[in-house]
Amino acid sequence: MQQARSLDSYRKHWAHRFGTAPFLPMCREEMDALGWDSCDVIIVTGDAYVDHPSFGMAIIGRVLEAQGFRVGIIAQPDWRDPEAFSALGRPNLFMGLTAGNMDSMVNRYTSDRKLRSDDAYTPGGEGGKRPDRSVIVYAQRVREALGDVPLVIGGIEASLRRIAHYDYWSDVVRRSVLMDSSADLLVYGNAERQVCEIAHRLAAGEPIHALSDIRGTALLRRELPPDWVEIDSTHLDVPGPLNPPIDPYAMEPMNAQAKSGQAAPVGESPVKVVRFARRVAAADRERSYIRLPAFDAVRDDPVLYAHASRILHMESNPGNARALVQRHGRHEVWLNPPPIPLTTREMDWVYDLPYQRVPHPAYGEAKIPAYKMIRFSVAIQRGCFGGCTFCSITEHEGRIIQSRSEDSVLREVAEIRDRVPGFTGVISDLGGPTANMYRLHCKDPKIESACRRPSCVYPDTCPNLNTDHSPLIRLYRRAREMPGIRKVLIASGVRYDLAIKSPEYVKELAEHHVGGYLKIAPEAIGEGPLSKMMKPGVGTYYRFKELFDRYSKAAGKEQYLIPYFIAAHPGTTDEDMLELALWLKANGFRADQVQAFLPGPMATATAMWHSGKDPLHKLRRDGGEVYVPSSPAQRRLHKAFLRYHDANNWPLLREALRRMGRADLIGSGKRHLVPAWQPKGTGEARPRARPGGRMLTQHTGLPPRGGLRSKEKK
Fold it and tell me: Does residue 301 sit in the same domain as residue 211?
C-alpha cells in the first residue's frame, strides 16, 4: 500500500508560538485572551463543543492546533442568522463545516420519519438546535456571511453524500452534497491526513482550487485531468441492457468526440477513453479513473443506482482504489481514492493530544447526554471489516483496522482516572466500531492491498485474516490491573463470529468485563435476511452463547446475552419475522426496544431498498430481486413481531397470523404466540397491514443511529 506522510512530520505553522489553548475559543473574548487577532481555521459543528477525542470537532481542532494553526469553534450556531457564522471573523485559511458526530437527519428523525424531541449532542438534550441537512444549510449561511472564503465540508453527513445518493427522508435520489453546498472541498472518512495537508498547502500560498489531488477528498471539476485513462464502470460490472435504450454515460460534446477520435475543443481536457476493455495497463492504473453513471441516470434508473453503489464499494480499498467521477449537469464530481489508514504511531499521536475531556465551560452545569455516555470510555481502534450492508462504518472509516498501542490506551485510562470529574473506578468501554477487531489484519499486506471483498468475515472468516485476540486480552488485563481501576466494561458490540475463534477471549470477557448483560447483534435468524445483511447464521450465535454461558458459570456469575434485531430489513418477509418472534418467545426474550431498518445514504442495503436489486452480486435487469418490506403498515407489522408480548400489538398480529394461515398460533398455550383475548384499554384500531411486501423492479413511492441502525423506544 502507498505510504503517506506522517502527521507529525510537517513543519509547524508560525502561529504555534501562541502555545496550546485550554479550550479552542468559541468567541472573540476567548481569542483576545489567547492573544489572537484571527483564526487560521474555523470549524462549524452541529454538536456542542466537548473537548474529548470522541467528538470530531475536538480531534480535528487539536490536530490542526498541533500543526501550529489557530483553530476556533462555532458550535450549534443559529442557522437562521448569517451573522452567527462570522462570530470569530474570517479565517485566514478555511472554514470547516460538519453536521457533527451524527448525520443530522438520523439525529432528528426516527426510522419512521417522526421528529425526535431530543438531541443527545446538545446541552440539556434539547432538540431542534440543528437544521435538517445541516452541512448544506451551514454552507449557505457561510457564503452569505463570508462570501468566497475557502469552504471545506466533512464529517459523516458529508462523507456519506459524496456522490449521488438515495435520500430516505424525501424518497428521491439527491445530488452530491458538493453541488448543494457549493463547497470547495469535501473530506470523507477520518480526516486527519486530509485537513493537515489542506491547511499546510493553503498556508504555503496554494489556492483552494489547486488542491485536487488529496486522497480522501472530493471536489467539483469543469475539466478532467489530461492524459488520464477513463474507464466506463460497465466494463467492471455490466448492469444489463438499458431500458429505455439510451447511453447514460454519453457526455456531449466530450465523450462523443473521444469515441470518434476528434480533437477536444479549446478549453476541454483530452481524455483517453477505454470502453469495455477488461484490463488497464499497470502503468496507467495510477492515472485512470472510473466513470460512474451520471446523476440524471441514477436518479431515473434504480438499477443504475445499484450499479453505481456496487462500483463505489468495490473501489473502497485504499490499496487499490481508483478515482471515481460522476457527471452532475455541467460539473464532474471527482472522488480521489480513500485516505491511507493511520499507523499505530499516528493513532497514538492523535489520541495523546491535550484534550480537556470535558465540555466547554460556556455550557455551565448543563448536561450533554452524549458526553455522559462516553466520558469514561476509550476508543482503541477505528474501522470495521465486517461489511454489514445496513451499516456505513466501512464507507466512512474503511475496513482496515487502525489500532492504538497498549501504552497509549493505558495513558488515556490514567487520564480518565486522574482528571475526569465523577470517575468512580469503572471504565465504561474499551472499544470502537466493534469491540474485538483490535490489531486484527490481513496476514499478507500484498493480499490486503489487492483485496476487493466487502467483508473479511462473510460468508465465512477469510483464511488470510489474522484472528489472534491475544493483544486485546493483554490490553484488557493491563487496564483492569491499573491502580484505581475497579472494573473495565466492554460496551461496544462484540463480533461473536470472531470471538469464537478465541475461546480465551470469551473467557476473559465473561469473567471480568460484563456487568450482568452483554448486548450482541445477530440482527436476524433467517438465512434470507442474513444473506442480505452479510451477517453470520444463528449457529454461530449458539456457539458463542455456549462459550459465554460456560465461562460465566465457571466464574460463579449469572450473566445473560441480550441479542438485538432489525425489523423490515431488505430481504425480510413476514414469515421471517414470524420465525424470529417464535424464536424470541421460545428463548424468553422480550424486547424493550426495537430496531427498524433506516436506509441511510450510501449503505449497500439502501441500494437494495431503493432498487429492489442485490448489489452484492453482479446486477441483472431480469433477476436478482430483493424482497423489500417498504410500506408503513408492513414496517409496523415487522416491529410488532419483535414486540409480540405487547398487548397493543396483538390485534395486528392476530390479523397477520390469520392471513398467513397460522391461526394455530393464536391462543393461551405455551405454543401460541398471542392470545385470542384482548386486555381492556389496549390494541386500539390501527391501519391494517397489507399482505406481503413488494419486489421492487422499478422506482416506487416509499414511506418514511452509528452505522445507520435505528434503535427506537416503543
Answer: no
**Of 555, 384, 397, whose CA–CA distance to 458 is shortest?**
384
Q: Which of 216, 246, 273 is the last residue of a domain?
A: 216
Last residue of a domain, one of 286, 301, 329: 329
**Three-class DSSP category at 496:** helix
Judged by DSSP in three states, 334 sits in strand
> Which residues are registered as beta bridge partners of 74?
44
Burial class (CB in 10 A: 0-12, 13-18, 19+), 637: buried
User: Residue 480 to residues 113, 413, 414, 483: CA-CA distances in angstroms?
Assistant: 42, 10, 11, 8
Q: Does residue 263 share a domain with residue 177?
A: no
Per-residue pLDDT band at 622 (split at 50, 70, 90): confident
Mean pLDDT of all residues in 608-622:
93
CA distances from 700 to 11, 614, 618 (A): 55, 17, 22
Q: Are 613 and 302 in contact (CB under 8 A)?
A: yes
Q: What are the grid coordinates assigned to 475, written together? A: 490490553
249 lies in the same domain as 168: no
Is 471 a residue whose pLDDT tops 90?
A: yes
How far apart, in whole angstroms, are the C-alpha atoms of residue 543 and residue 570?
Answer: 26
Range list of β-strands (E), 307-398: 323-328, 331-335, 377-379, 381-382
Which structural domain, as residue segments, surrounds residue 189? 1-216
Closest CA to 474 of 443, 445, 512: 512
Do 137 and 258 fall within a single domain?
A: no
Query: Residue 394: what pLDDT?
Result: 83
* C-alpha cell, 629: 418490506
Claim to verify: residue 191 and residue 260 sit in the same structural domain: no
d(CA 634, CA 636): 5
Residues ≥6 apart with Cβ < 8 Å to 81 = 141
What's this model's pTM, rounded to 2 decimal places?
Answer: 0.90
266/208 same-domain check = no
Report the distance separating Cα 684 and Cα 647, nearest Å: 10
Residue 498 lies in a domain: no
524's enclosing H/E stretch is none
Res. 351: pLDDT tops 60:
yes
CA atoms within 13 A on the CB side of 519: 13
β-pairing verdict for 377-379 and 429-431: parallel
Question: Looking at the domain assignment, is residue 499 inside a domain?
Answer: no
Residue 596, in any domain of the structure: yes
CA angle 41, 45, 50 (to 5 degrees): 95
In terms of domains, do 267 and 321 share one? yes
d(CA 135, CA 98): 6
Domain count, the chain: 3
Give the three cell numbers for residue 365.
452545569
Residue 104 inside a domain? The answer is yes
